[in-house]
Write a structure and sequence with these properties.
Layout: E1 5-6, H1 8-19, H2 27-35, E2 41-45, E3 48-52, H3 53-57, H4 61-79, E4 81-82, H5 84-90, H6 95-104, E5 115-116, H7 117-126, H8 128-134, E6 136-137, H9 139-146, H10 150-159, E7 166-167, E8 173-176, H11 177-184, H12 190-195, H13 211-227, E9 232-237, E10 242-247, H14 257-261, H15 266-273, E11 277-279, H16 282-293, E12 299-306, E13 315-322, E14 328-333, H17 342-348, H18 352-355, H19 361-372, E15 376-379, H20 382-396, E16 410-411, H21 412-419, H22 434-448
Parallel strand pairs: 10-11, 12-15, 15-16
Antiparallel strand pairs: 1-3, 2-3, 4-5, 6-8, 7-8, 9-10, 12-13, 13-14
Helix pairs in contact: 1-2, 2-4, 5-6, 9-10, 10-15, 16-21, 16-22, 21-22
């Protein structure tokens, strides 16, 4: 007959009652006795051991004697150790900081996952200060710690007084407490910086040197890019005291931001971290994005014609072209399953008669997905095309793969507005047939890889004090 088993918690309760002293027995004590062979196992439940119930309820003299010793050892250990939370608090660290640094220092937790006090005290005196000093803060937290605004913190970075420790996963500059304390010890007019009016020039604006010198370095950078055949220009914002350098990608790709950073002089490298120099602003990023989208197998341009703009709108025609070479990947009329309203026909000229013998969406969608493969779907006003496909797919239970997820699409219309530095949108201006509109949208994509109109026409102006904010400066394109 199999022995009855008790889980550790119940076994501990039985042994506590057997001792009759009121001293609690813990599951850890039970496991210790089992490891020593004094308490037998009686199976397991969900990978947790069960212990002999009869022995736990009526332990023999040998087991009771050893149990007293185990409980005493645990009580002494508890009095001379800390939990991870207590140890971290003693070291003024977070639990994750403490456990990682203690492990690196060769410390290991003992019984009950607790840490020996004397070892923690030694660690707190010897190693914890270094760990605390290496803790990083973001720019806003760093500015508050120094008692200044973010603007003044950025000027400290440009001047090299405050050195970043790197960037976090989101690309935000980070600073160690040690570097912040070192900056705070510098003989600067901290009171004046902390009390400077927000809309007035910072007292530290030229801490790194004259603004004219920074402008000359930006001018030299643009000329350096132009000398190797890169179409580059810069724009200065007096309000933000910030230069933006944009450049068009070469036909073979590049140079990318990292390649340009690698050739920056020290002051401009610091200016990037200080938000005083932006390499590839929204316009530049759009150009490089467009160039990447036109590489082999990367993207396709899709256009749909529909039964309307709102409500139960269905696809009546769809086409896709390869963003690399412009070849037609797919084109088909679609039987929408509902009548095409006259206003829609007036726009795209597709009638009920034209789609009468065409395949339905549940037949078309899988072929479209197969044709575009893993390419990123692009569309001019992707919110419409992606939403239309998602709706028609839901209504017909079709298999449209990733095309049924609006999040997988990217919008050429929004990118074009960014490229033109405008918040408005422009009509595509095609013939309102799926293939013609897809080809026209591809032409837009290709144009986005080039500098926008007027971007490189202005003369280089290396003096920010004379830069015409709102118009082109140092080769920059005027706002539209």
């Amino acid at each position: 007959m199999p022995r009855m088993g008790l889980p550790a918690r119940h076994a501990a309760a039985c042994l506590t009652a057997a001792l009759g002293s009121g001293t609690p027995v813990l599951p850890d004590d039970v496991a210790r006795l089992a490891d020593e062979g004094l308490l037998g196992h009686a199976g397991e439940v969900c990978d947790h051991p069960l212990y002999d119930a009869a022995v736990c309820r009526e332990p023999g003299p040998e087991l009771v004697g050893r149990l007293w010793a185990v409980v005493h050892e645990r009580t002494v250990w508890t009095a001379n150790s800390w939990t991870a939370q207590e140890a971290a608090k003693r070291c003024e660290l977070t639990v994750s900081e403490f456990t990682a640094a203690a492990g690196d220092a060769g410390l290991r937790p003992g019984r009950l996952g607790r840490w020996e006090r004397t070892a923690v005290e030694a660690f707190a005196a010897r190693t914890a200060p270094t760990v605390r000093a290496s803790r990083t803060l973001g720019p806003e937290q760093s500015a508050r710690r120094l008692g200044v605004r973010r603007r003044e913190l950025d000027y400290l970075v440009e001047a090299g007084v405050l050195v970043p420790a790197g960037r976090n996963a989101k690309g935000t500059v980070q600073f160690t407490l040690a570097s912040l304390d070192s900056a705070a010890a510098q003989p600067l007019d901290w009171h004046r910086a902390a009390t400077a009016p927000p809309r007035h020039p910072s007292p530290w604006a030229e801490l790194a040197g004259p603004l004219q010198a920074r402008a000359e370095l930006v001018r030299a950078l643009v000329e350096q890019l132009r000398e190797v055949g890169v179409s580059a220009w810069a724009r200065y914002s007096r309000t933000a005291d910030c230069w933006t350098v944009d450049w068009a990608p070469l036909p073979q790709g590049g140079p990318d931001r990292e390649e340009v950073v690698a050739v920056l002089p020290v002051r401009l490298a610091r200016a990037v971290d200080a938000r005083r120099l932006v390499l590839l602003g929204p316009v530049g990023e759009t150009m490089h994005w467009a160039q990447a989208m036109t590489q082999p197998g990367v993207a396709c341009v899709i256009d749909c014609e529909s039964t309307g703009l709102r409500g139960d709108t269905r696809v009546v025609e769809v086409a896709a072209v390869d963003a690399f070479d412009g070849r037609t990947l797919f084109e088909s009329l679609v039987q929408p399953g509902i009548a095409i309203p006259a206003p829609a026909t007036a726009i795209h000229k597709i009638t009920d008669a034209m789609v009468a013998g065409s395949p339905t969406w549940d037949q078309v969608a899988p072929d479209l997905v197969a044709a575009v493969g893993s390419r990123i779907p692009l569309a001019y006003n992707s919110a419409f095309d992606a939403g239309l496909i998602a709706h028609h797919t839901r209504m017909t239970a079709a298999d449209a793969g990733h095309l049924a997820s609006p999040a997988s699409w990217q919008c050429l219309m929004k990118r074009r507005s960014t490229w033109l530095s405008t918040t408005g949108w422009r009509r595509l201006g095609a013939d309102h047939r799926a293939l013609g509109d897809a080809v026209a949208a591809l032409d837009v994509l290709r144009s986005l890889a080039q500098p926008p109109p007027g971007a490189t026409e202005s003369a280089v102006d290396a003096d920010p004090s004379t830069a015409d904010w709102g118009a082109a400066a140092h080769g920059g394109a005027p706002h539209r």
